[in-house]
Amino acid sequence: MDDIQPTAQAAQSAAAPAAGAVAPGAPVAHRLTGLAMKRRGPVAVWLGLPLITLGIYQLVWYYKIHKELQEFDRRRALSPAGSLLVMIFLGWTLIAPLISFHNTGKAIANAQRAAGLPVTCSPAASTWLAFVFGLNTWYIQRQLNMVVDAYPAATPGTEVPLAA
Fold it and tell me: What confidence score (pLDDT) does residue 31 get?
């Protein structure tokens, strides 16, 4: 997964004051929107479902969160399929998955910023927690749930306003 780069549309965005809120007087043309993400249980993502599915769920989850991050903030270029292929074909190496986890942490930090939240996701933590019983999946999902919680009334896949 390559570094996440903002597109030209990012320069046209209007700033918003609160988490998930858009300034009330902002023109409609300048309001940025994205699609709401799904809230998942961090423990189920980390331990429960991967055990039941013999590890397949973790790959499905990794693809889904990248797709949701891409749809949440379309200004960021992500490759959900590329991230999944790294895990499938280069998972046996040590460096490629760690770089992918690091870039995922950056993408989540950008999503937190776009939701108007303080950035609490550390790309380093999402990388190094992989060595502690695979807790990086728990950490990543917990950080994603913070973005989901910024839009309490939104169902997954509905449009939500972006703050920045």
Answer: 80
3-state DSSP assignment of residue 104? helix
Give every CB contact of residue 44 below 8 A, 6+ residues apart in sequence: none
Cα–Cα dist 147/73, whole Å: 12
Full DSSP string of 42-97: HHIIIIIHHHHTTTHHHHHHHHHHHHHHHHH-TTB---HHHHHHHHHHHTTSSHHH
Q: What does the block give as tokens for 113?
A: 């910023």
Q: 113 exposed, middle or buried (CB, 10 Å; 0-12, 13-18, 19+)?
A: middle
Radius of gyration of the chain from Cα atoms?
16
What pLDDT score was predicted for residue 13? Answer: 42
Tell me how many degrees the CA angle 73-127-146 measures, rounded to the nearest 5: 40
- What are the pLDDT digits (tens) for 28-58? 456 899 999 999 999 999 999 999 999 999 9
What is the model's pLDDT at position 70?
A: 97
The predicted model gives 2-11 an average pLDDT of 47
Residue with structure tokens 């990012």?
A: 10
